[in-house]
Amino acid sequence: MENTQQQQQQQQQQPQSQVLNVERVQELETWLKTTNTNLTQVNGQRKYGGPPDVWEGPFPGARCEVFISQIPRDAYEDLLIPLFSSVGPLWEFRLMMNFSGQNRGFAYAKYGSPAIATNAIRLLHGHMLEPGSRLSVRRSTEKRHLCMGDLPAATRQEDLLQVLRVLTEGVERVSLKAGPGIEGVSAIVAFSSHHAASMAKKVLVEAFKKQFSLSISIKWQSAVKPSSDETLPPQKPSKGLLPSPVKPRHHILHSPQSSVLPPRLARPPSIPPGFCKAVGGPTAPQRPPPPSSSTSSSCSYGHRASSASPVVLLHRMCEASGVGQPLYEMHYSYTGSDGFIYFTFKVCIPGIHTAFEGVVMILPGPSTTTMLEEVQCAAAQQVLHRVYSYQLTQ
Fold first, then answer.
1. pTM, entire model
2. Residue 352 near residue 260 (C-beta atoms within 8 A)
3. Residues 6+ apart with CB under 8 A from 34
4. pLDDT digits over 155-192, tens only?
Protein backbone atom coordinates (compact mmCIF):
# COMPACT_ATOMS: atom_id res chain seq x y z
CA MET A 1 0.00 0.00 0.00
CA GLU A 2 2.79 2.39 0.94
CA ASN A 3 4.73 1.80 -2.29
CA THR A 4 1.54 2.16 -4.31
CA GLN A 5 0.86 5.54 -2.70
CA GLN A 6 4.40 6.75 -3.42
CA GLN A 7 4.18 5.58 -7.04
CA GLN A 8 0.86 7.38 -7.49
CA GLN A 9 2.35 10.58 -6.07
CA GLN A 10 5.26 10.36 -8.50
CA GLN A 11 2.93 9.69 -11.43
CA GLN A 12 0.72 12.62 -10.46
CA GLN A 13 3.77 14.89 -10.52
CA GLN A 14 4.75 14.03 -14.11
CA PRO A 15 4.89 17.13 -16.35
CA GLN A 16 1.47 18.03 -17.71
CA SER A 17 -0.09 21.09 -19.27
CA GLN A 18 0.79 24.10 -17.12
CA VAL A 19 -1.92 26.34 -18.57
CA LEU A 20 -3.99 27.70 -15.70
CA ASN A 21 -7.76 27.48 -16.08
CA VAL A 22 -8.66 31.04 -15.05
CA GLU A 23 -12.39 30.29 -15.10
CA ARG A 24 -11.94 27.48 -12.57
CA VAL A 25 -9.83 29.74 -10.32
CA GLN A 26 -12.57 32.36 -10.39
CA GLU A 27 -15.14 29.71 -9.46
CA LEU A 28 -12.94 28.75 -6.50
CA GLU A 29 -12.68 32.38 -5.37
CA THR A 30 -16.45 32.81 -5.62
CA TRP A 31 -17.03 29.64 -3.61
CA LEU A 32 -14.59 30.77 -0.90
CA LYS A 33 -16.38 34.10 -0.50
CA THR A 34 -19.88 32.60 -0.66
CA THR A 35 -19.17 29.90 1.91
CA ASN A 36 -16.79 32.03 4.01
CA THR A 37 -14.23 29.24 3.78
CA ASN A 38 -10.60 29.93 4.69
CA LEU A 39 -7.71 28.06 3.09
CA THR A 40 -4.10 28.31 4.21
CA GLN A 41 -1.20 27.89 1.80
CA VAL A 42 2.22 26.76 2.99
CA ASN A 43 4.98 24.40 1.85
CA GLY A 44 3.40 23.55 -1.49
CA GLN A 45 -0.07 22.72 -0.24
CA ARG A 46 -3.39 24.40 0.52
CA LYS A 47 -5.12 23.33 3.69
CA TYR A 48 -8.65 23.56 5.03
CA GLY A 49 -9.37 22.95 8.70
CA GLY A 50 -7.10 21.04 11.03
CA PRO A 51 -9.48 21.66 12.80
CA PRO A 52 -12.16 23.73 11.04
CA ASP A 53 -13.70 26.73 12.79
CA VAL A 54 -16.56 24.61 14.12
CA TRP A 55 -15.82 21.03 15.18
CA GLU A 56 -18.04 18.86 17.38
CA GLY A 57 -16.77 15.39 16.58
CA PRO A 58 -13.90 13.34 18.02
CA PHE A 59 -10.27 14.28 17.38
CA PRO A 60 -8.70 12.17 14.63
CA GLY A 61 -6.41 9.30 15.51
CA ALA A 62 -4.74 6.63 13.41
CA ARG A 63 -6.36 5.46 10.14
CA CYS A 64 -8.59 8.54 9.90
CA GLU A 65 -6.98 9.96 6.75
CA VAL A 66 -7.46 8.97 3.10
CA PHE A 67 -5.14 9.55 0.16
CA ILE A 68 -6.83 10.89 -3.00
CA SER A 69 -5.13 10.65 -6.40
CA GLN A 70 -6.05 11.02 -10.08
CA ILE A 71 -7.44 14.50 -9.41
CA PRO A 72 -7.83 16.66 -12.56
CA ARG A 73 -5.27 19.47 -12.44
CA ASP A 74 -7.91 22.20 -12.61
CA ALA A 75 -10.15 20.73 -9.90
CA TYR A 76 -10.00 22.70 -6.67
CA GLU A 77 -11.47 22.77 -3.18
CA ASP A 78 -14.84 24.09 -4.36
CA LEU A 79 -15.42 20.65 -5.94
CA LEU A 80 -13.41 18.43 -3.62
CA ILE A 81 -14.33 19.67 -0.13
CA PRO A 82 -18.14 19.41 -0.66
CA LEU A 83 -17.66 15.96 -2.20
CA PHE A 84 -15.59 14.55 0.66
CA SER A 85 -17.72 16.35 3.26
CA SER A 86 -20.74 14.46 1.94
CA VAL A 87 -19.38 11.33 3.63
CA GLY A 88 -18.86 12.98 7.01
CA PRO A 89 -17.44 16.11 8.63
CA LEU A 90 -13.91 16.91 7.47
CA TRP A 91 -11.32 17.62 10.12
CA GLU A 92 -8.76 18.62 7.49
CA PHE A 93 -8.35 18.67 3.71
CA ARG A 94 -4.94 19.23 2.05
CA LEU A 95 -4.56 19.77 -1.69
CA MET A 96 -1.00 19.62 -3.06
CA MET A 97 -0.20 22.59 -5.33
CA ASN A 98 2.52 23.51 -7.81
CA PHE A 99 3.88 26.96 -8.64
CA SER A 100 1.69 27.36 -11.73
CA GLY A 101 -1.47 27.44 -9.61
CA GLN A 102 -2.61 23.99 -10.69
CA ASN A 103 -2.94 21.17 -8.21
CA ARG A 104 -0.43 18.31 -8.33
CA GLY A 105 -3.06 15.63 -8.78
CA PHE A 106 -3.36 14.36 -5.21
CA ALA A 107 -4.75 15.38 -1.82
CA TYR A 108 -5.44 14.14 1.71
CA ALA A 109 -8.76 14.17 3.58
CA LYS A 110 -8.89 13.53 7.33
CA TYR A 111 -12.03 12.61 9.28
CA GLY A 112 -12.91 12.25 12.95
CA SER A 113 -12.92 8.43 12.97
CA PRO A 114 -11.55 5.46 10.98
CA ALA A 115 -15.13 4.39 10.21
CA ILE A 116 -15.88 7.59 8.28
CA ALA A 117 -12.56 7.28 6.44
CA THR A 118 -13.54 3.73 5.48
CA ASN A 119 -16.87 4.98 4.16
CA ALA A 120 -15.07 7.62 2.10
CA ILE A 121 -12.99 4.90 0.46
CA ARG A 122 -16.04 2.71 -0.14
CA LEU A 123 -18.24 5.48 -1.53
CA LEU A 124 -15.80 7.72 -3.38
CA HIS A 125 -13.14 5.41 -4.82
CA GLY A 126 -13.77 5.46 -8.57
CA HIS A 127 -16.03 8.52 -8.35
CA MET A 128 -16.17 10.36 -11.68
CA LEU A 129 -15.36 13.96 -10.84
CA GLU A 130 -15.26 14.93 -14.52
CA PRO A 131 -16.03 12.93 -17.67
CA GLY A 132 -13.25 10.40 -18.12
CA SER A 133 -11.65 11.18 -14.76
CA ARG A 134 -12.22 8.81 -11.85
CA LEU A 135 -10.75 9.48 -8.41
CA SER A 136 -8.61 6.96 -6.56
CA VAL A 137 -9.29 6.98 -2.81
CA ARG A 138 -7.20 4.81 -0.49
CA ARG A 139 -6.14 4.71 3.13
CA SER A 140 -3.29 7.11 3.84
CA THR A 141 -0.14 5.55 5.28
CA GLU A 142 0.29 8.45 7.75
CA LYS A 143 3.86 7.63 8.72
CA ARG A 144 4.64 8.66 12.28
CA HIS A 145 8.11 7.19 12.78
CA LEU A 146 11.54 8.51 11.84
CA CYS A 147 14.85 6.65 11.84
CA MET A 148 17.79 8.74 13.08
CA GLY A 149 21.22 7.42 12.14
CA ASP A 150 24.88 8.21 12.86
CA LEU A 151 24.33 8.94 16.55
CA PRO A 152 27.33 8.54 18.91
CA ALA A 153 27.79 5.06 20.36
CA ALA A 154 27.35 6.35 23.92
CA THR A 155 23.93 7.90 23.24
CA ARG A 156 21.40 7.16 25.99
CA GLN A 157 17.72 6.75 25.25
CA GLU A 158 16.45 9.08 27.98
CA ASP A 159 18.92 11.81 26.99
CA LEU A 160 17.99 11.65 23.32
CA LEU A 161 14.29 11.79 24.19
CA GLN A 162 14.90 14.93 26.25
CA VAL A 163 16.86 16.59 23.43
CA LEU A 164 14.21 15.82 20.82
CA ARG A 165 11.41 17.20 22.98
CA VAL A 166 13.31 20.47 23.24
CA LEU A 167 14.10 20.72 19.53
CA THR A 168 10.76 19.68 18.04
CA GLU A 169 7.13 18.92 18.90
CA GLY A 170 5.04 15.76 19.15
CA VAL A 171 7.79 13.31 20.24
CA GLU A 172 6.19 10.38 22.06
CA ARG A 173 8.94 7.79 22.55
CA VAL A 174 12.40 6.74 21.37
CA SER A 175 13.93 3.27 20.84
CA LEU A 176 17.67 2.82 20.25
CA LYS A 177 19.17 0.19 17.99
CA ALA A 178 22.76 -0.99 17.63
CA GLY A 179 24.47 -4.07 16.25
CA PRO A 180 26.27 -5.57 13.26
CA GLY A 181 25.94 -3.47 10.14
CA ILE A 182 24.80 -0.40 12.09
CA GLU A 183 27.38 2.37 12.31
CA GLY A 184 27.17 4.07 15.67
CA VAL A 185 23.65 4.07 17.09
CA SER A 186 20.34 4.56 15.31
CA ALA A 187 17.05 5.55 16.90
CA ILE A 188 13.42 5.00 16.00
CA VAL A 189 11.42 8.06 17.04
CA ALA A 190 7.63 7.88 17.35
CA PHE A 191 5.56 11.06 16.94
CA SER A 192 2.00 11.97 17.84
CA SER A 193 1.06 12.66 14.19
CA HIS A 194 2.36 12.47 10.64
CA HIS A 195 2.54 16.26 10.57
CA ALA A 196 4.75 16.38 13.67
CA ALA A 197 7.05 13.72 12.19
CA SER A 198 7.20 15.54 8.86
CA MET A 199 8.15 18.86 10.48
CA ALA A 200 10.79 17.15 12.64
CA LYS A 201 12.29 15.53 9.55
CA LYS A 202 12.78 19.00 8.06
CA VAL A 203 14.49 20.61 11.05
CA LEU A 204 16.39 18.02 13.08
CA VAL A 205 19.43 17.51 10.83
CA GLU A 206 20.20 21.22 10.85
CA ALA A 207 19.32 21.53 14.55
CA PHE A 208 21.79 18.79 15.58
CA LYS A 209 24.48 20.27 13.35
CA LYS A 210 23.96 23.74 14.81
CA GLN A 211 23.47 22.81 18.46
CA PHE A 212 25.95 19.91 18.79
CA SER A 213 28.17 20.08 15.67
CA LEU A 214 26.90 16.59 14.87
CA SER A 215 25.94 15.27 11.43
CA ILE A 216 23.05 12.82 11.65
CA SER A 217 20.86 11.17 9.05
CA ILE A 218 17.07 11.05 9.14
CA LYS A 219 14.68 9.00 7.02
CA TRP A 220 11.16 7.65 7.26
CA GLN A 221 10.81 4.37 9.10
CA SER A 222 8.44 2.28 7.00
CA ALA A 223 7.36 -0.49 9.34
CA VAL A 224 7.74 -0.27 13.09
CA LYS A 225 7.24 -3.16 15.47
CA PRO A 226 8.17 -1.94 18.93
CA SER A 227 10.06 -4.50 20.91
CA SER A 228 11.83 -4.37 24.23
CA ASP A 229 14.70 -6.22 22.54
CA GLU A 230 15.35 -3.21 20.35
CA THR A 231 15.92 -0.88 23.27
CA LEU A 232 19.44 -0.65 24.62
CA PRO A 233 19.83 -0.90 28.40
CA PRO A 234 20.59 2.36 30.23
CA GLN A 235 24.26 3.24 30.20
CA LYS A 236 26.40 5.19 32.61
CA PRO A 237 26.77 8.87 31.81
CA SER A 238 29.62 9.63 29.47
CA LYS A 239 31.37 12.92 28.93
CA GLY A 240 31.62 12.08 25.25
CA LEU A 241 27.94 11.39 24.77
CA LEU A 242 27.51 14.16 22.25
CA PRO A 243 29.82 17.02 21.39
CA SER A 244 29.22 20.28 23.18
CA PRO A 245 27.46 22.87 21.05
CA VAL A 246 29.85 24.89 18.95
CA LYS A 247 29.87 28.62 19.39
CA PRO A 248 27.52 30.07 16.79
CA ARG A 249 28.62 32.72 14.38
CA HIS A 250 27.96 36.31 15.42
CA HIS A 251 24.30 37.04 15.03
CA ILE A 252 21.88 39.39 16.68
CA LEU A 253 20.26 36.66 18.74
CA HIS A 254 23.54 35.00 19.65
CA SER A 255 25.42 38.19 20.46
CA PRO A 256 27.18 38.23 23.83
CA GLN A 257 26.14 41.85 24.31
CA SER A 258 23.36 41.98 26.86
CA SER A 259 22.08 45.21 25.33
CA VAL A 260 21.05 43.52 22.08
CA LEU A 261 17.81 42.17 23.55
CA PRO A 262 15.70 43.61 26.35
CA PRO A 263 16.12 41.83 29.72
CA ARG A 264 12.85 39.88 29.53
CA LEU A 265 13.90 38.36 26.18
CA ALA A 266 17.67 38.21 26.73
CA ARG A 267 17.58 36.24 29.98
CA PRO A 268 14.96 33.49 29.80
CA PRO A 269 15.11 30.49 32.14
CA SER A 270 18.22 28.57 31.08
CA ILE A 271 18.54 24.90 30.25
CA PRO A 272 20.67 23.01 32.81
CA PRO A 273 24.40 22.92 31.91
CA GLY A 274 24.27 19.14 31.81
CA PHE A 275 21.92 19.29 28.85
CA CYS A 276 24.34 21.27 26.69
CA LYS A 277 27.42 19.33 27.80
CA ALA A 278 26.07 15.79 27.61
CA VAL A 279 22.70 16.12 25.90
CA GLY A 280 21.02 14.87 28.99
CA GLY A 281 21.34 15.48 32.71
CA PRO A 282 18.58 17.10 34.79
CA THR A 283 15.13 17.45 33.31
CA ALA A 284 14.79 20.72 31.46
CA PRO A 285 12.17 23.19 32.77
CA GLN A 286 8.88 23.33 30.97
CA ARG A 287 8.93 25.95 28.22
CA PRO A 288 6.40 27.07 25.65
CA PRO A 289 6.75 25.00 22.45
CA PRO A 290 8.74 26.69 19.67
CA PRO A 291 6.81 28.20 16.79
CA SER A 292 6.54 25.55 14.07
CA SER A 293 5.83 25.80 10.42
CA SER A 294 2.33 24.70 11.17
CA THR A 295 1.90 28.08 12.84
CA SER A 296 2.86 29.80 9.63
CA SER A 297 -0.02 28.10 7.94
CA SER A 298 -2.26 30.40 9.94
CA CYS A 299 -1.66 33.02 7.28
CA SER A 300 -4.93 32.69 5.44
CA TYR A 301 -5.26 32.27 1.71
CA GLY A 302 -6.72 35.55 0.50
CA HIS A 303 -7.44 36.79 4.03
CA ARG A 304 -5.66 38.66 6.80
CA ALA A 305 -3.63 36.62 9.27
CA SER A 306 -5.60 34.95 12.03
CA SER A 307 -5.02 35.48 15.75
CA ALA A 308 -2.60 32.51 15.85
CA SER A 309 -0.40 33.68 12.96
CA PRO A 310 3.32 34.38 13.45
CA VAL A 311 2.68 38.08 12.75
CA VAL A 312 0.24 38.29 15.67
CA LEU A 313 2.41 36.13 17.94
CA LEU A 314 5.46 38.35 17.29
CA HIS A 315 3.32 41.46 17.87
CA ARG A 316 2.14 40.09 21.23
CA MET A 317 5.64 39.06 22.29
CA CYS A 318 7.04 42.52 21.52
CA GLU A 319 4.11 44.17 23.26
CA ALA A 320 4.59 42.06 26.38
CA SER A 321 8.34 42.79 26.40
CA GLY A 322 7.87 46.53 25.94
CA VAL A 323 10.21 46.79 22.94
CA GLY A 324 7.78 48.38 20.48
CA GLN A 325 6.08 46.91 17.45
CA PRO A 326 8.03 45.27 14.59
CA LEU A 327 8.36 47.08 11.26
CA TYR A 328 8.64 44.98 8.10
CA GLU A 329 10.57 45.64 4.89
CA MET A 330 10.04 43.06 2.13
CA HIS A 331 11.61 43.06 -1.33
CA TYR A 332 11.28 40.69 -4.28
CA SER A 333 14.59 38.96 -5.06
CA TYR A 334 14.11 36.40 -7.85
CA THR A 335 12.03 33.44 -9.04
CA GLY A 336 13.82 30.10 -8.83
CA SER A 337 13.77 27.33 -11.42
CA ASP A 338 11.63 25.31 -9.00
CA GLY A 339 8.89 27.96 -9.28
CA PHE A 340 9.33 29.39 -5.79
CA ILE A 341 9.49 33.17 -5.44
CA TYR A 342 12.28 34.46 -3.19
CA PHE A 343 11.99 37.61 -1.07
CA THR A 344 14.47 39.34 1.22
CA PHE A 345 13.16 40.85 4.43
CA LYS A 346 14.24 43.10 7.28
CA VAL A 347 12.30 43.27 10.54
CA CYS A 348 13.16 46.22 12.80
CA ILE A 349 12.03 46.25 16.43
CA PRO A 350 12.55 49.65 18.12
CA GLY A 351 13.81 48.22 21.42
CA ILE A 352 16.34 45.90 19.73
CA HIS A 353 19.44 47.56 18.31
CA THR A 354 20.02 45.22 15.35
CA ALA A 355 17.50 44.32 12.65
CA PHE A 356 16.48 40.77 11.78
CA GLU A 357 17.27 40.00 8.14
CA GLY A 358 16.79 36.94 5.98
CA VAL A 359 15.34 35.29 2.90
CA VAL A 360 12.01 33.49 2.49
CA MET A 361 10.49 31.60 -0.41
CA ILE A 362 6.83 31.18 -1.26
CA LEU A 363 4.66 29.78 -4.02
CA PRO A 364 2.83 32.24 -6.27
CA GLY A 365 -0.51 33.31 -4.83
CA PRO A 366 -3.71 34.64 -6.38
CA SER A 367 -2.73 38.27 -5.77
CA THR A 368 0.18 40.50 -4.75
CA THR A 369 -1.52 41.23 -1.42
CA THR A 370 -1.85 37.53 -0.62
CA MET A 371 1.80 36.87 -1.45
CA LEU A 372 3.03 39.79 0.65
CA GLU A 373 0.93 38.56 3.58
CA GLU A 374 2.56 35.15 3.23
CA VAL A 375 6.04 36.72 3.06
CA GLN A 376 5.27 38.73 6.20
CA CYS A 377 4.12 35.57 7.99
CA ALA A 378 7.28 33.70 6.95
CA ALA A 379 9.48 36.61 8.07
CA ALA A 380 7.75 36.79 11.46
CA GLN A 381 8.11 33.01 11.75
CA GLN A 382 11.88 33.27 11.24
CA VAL A 383 12.18 36.01 13.86
CA LEU A 384 10.23 33.88 16.36
CA HIS A 385 12.45 30.86 15.65
CA ARG A 386 15.60 32.95 16.16
CA VAL A 387 14.33 34.32 19.45
CA TYR A 388 13.43 30.80 20.61
CA SER A 389 16.81 29.39 19.51
CA TYR A 390 18.56 32.22 21.33
CA GLN A 391 16.66 31.42 24.53
CA LEU A 392 17.63 27.73 24.29
CA THR A 393 21.34 28.60 24.11
CA GLN A 394 21.29 30.84 27.18
1. 0.48
2. yes
3. none
4. 888 889 988 988 888 899 999 986 555 566 899 999 88
